[in-house]
Amino acid sequence: MKAKVGRHKALYRHKSFSRSLLLAFCFLFFLSLHLGCGVRRNPLPPIERIPQRTELLSGVQRGNRVLLSWPAPQRNAPPESVQSIQRIDIFRLAERPEDPLPLTEDEFAARSTLIGSVTYETIQNSGDTLTYIDTLELAGQPTRLRYALRYVNASGQRASFSNFLLIEPAARIAEPPVLIAPAEETETSITIRWRPPTANIDGSTPVNLLGYNVYRTSPSQTEISQTPINNALVNGTEYVDKSFQSGEQYNYIVRSVSLGTGGAQVESLNSNVVAVAPRDRFAPTAPTSITIAAAPGRLSLFYPANPERDVAGYQIYRSLDPALPKERWTKLNDALVTRTTFQDDTVESGKKYYYYLVAVDTSGNVSAPSEVVSETAP
After folding, report:
1. Is there a contact between 257 and 207 (Cβ–Cβ < 8 Å)?
2. What is the percentage of the chain residues whose pLDDT exceeds 70?
3. SS3 of 312, please?
């Protein structure tokens, strides 16, 4: 009987200890949750997501080249990061124009050819757009070219292919024209002239020529604009540019435009460059229609404004002797007269005064003298 009572007491002590241990554990767990909610930790830096592919691959045929372009990655990870884009591989697949358009990435990977790569340095130093030029051998049967690119990271892992770009290049594309230097300059225009192409890039004739596009760049531009300065194709062999600014420096190129596959317009490669640095060396026309109004102790001159928009003002000259050489006449104004009237308050009654004007433009060019007008001071 005593042994049985002892076993019950031991079991009771064991259960009491277990309950105490359980209560202590629950208290510590609750305390850790409570304290953890009030602890402030340093925020973790955001994980930089590096774009691993593009869906915006585009391209165009120009002469015997295909110019590929796509948006450059906005940011790139450091070279040691596995997310760093180390290079961009360019692939091309030559197909028959009648081949099915759908193609899986695995089929493209198995059949395409690596034709080149964009290096890490080029990626780092690029602007908003990356480009790649594929020079073609245009001969033989019509071909459809399928392009795609893929990014390769620092570990050599390859991302998925970009979108597929399909181009059917034409072989009979006109050669570029030859620009004639120098250009012809006037105050209001720059005229560019050229000799037309004599053959297509594959040596064939007649020349496949629809017209020409004219492009102009200034030193501030890093590349030629994709938009020509002519609104419609130029059919002749000259172009008159009236939208220039004096004091700037321009480079002009012209491209032939041919009829390509499917009715598309295909430009040639660039012509040679003609550089033009227009300067305003053209004097305004002489002022005209000058009239004089007389009043006691005063003669007032009136004249219409010159038609040139760059006229800065006028110089007024006076003499008592109309036969005196004009370079010896007295200039009445210190600063350019910017109004279309001038009042001479230094006259003496009874004397006859002779006047002429010259116009001066913003570049300092001076017009020929106006006609001489005269009046006697009352």
Report:
1. no
2. 83
3. strand
